[in-house]
Amino acid sequence: MTVGLVYNQHDNYETMPHFIEARRFVYLLNASRARSLSFASNLNEAQRGLFS
Fold first, then answer.
1. Cα 15 from Cα 3, distance rounded (Å)
2. Coil/strand/helix, residue 1
3. What is the C-alpha to C-alpha distance for residues 4 and 36, in angstroms, rounded to an integer?
4. What pLDDT, on a 0 to 100 scale, did the predictor assign at position 16?
5. To 10 degrees, the CA torsion angle through 19, 22, 23, 28?
6. pTM of the model
7. How many whole angstroms separate alpha carbon 23 and alpha carbon 31?
8. Whole-number Å distance between alpha carbons of 47 and 49
C-alpha cells in the first residue's frame, strides 16, 4: 500500500507539470482561436454595416 502510494505520488509529480503545460497550451490555443473568431465576426458585422 505504501509503495503504491509513493509510486503514485512520484508518478503524479513527474507527469503533472507536463499535464499543466498541455492544459495551458490548449487553453491559450482555444482563447486565441475564439479571439480571432470574434474578431472575424466583428469584421463581418462592420462590413455588413458599411455595405448595407
1. 18
2. coil
3. 46
4. 64
5. 160
6. 0.42
7. 12
8. 5
The cell for 6 is 509513493
Q: How far apart are CA 31 and CA 25, in angstroms?
A: 10
User: So what's the pLDDT on residue 40?
Assistant: 80
pLDDT the model gives residue 1: 46
3-state helix, strand, coil in the chain (%, to 5): 95, 0, 5
Report pLDDT digits (tens) over 4-48: 455 555 555 555 666 778 788 888 888 888 888 888 888 888 778
pLDDT at residue number 6: 54
> How is residue 41 annotated by DSSP?
H
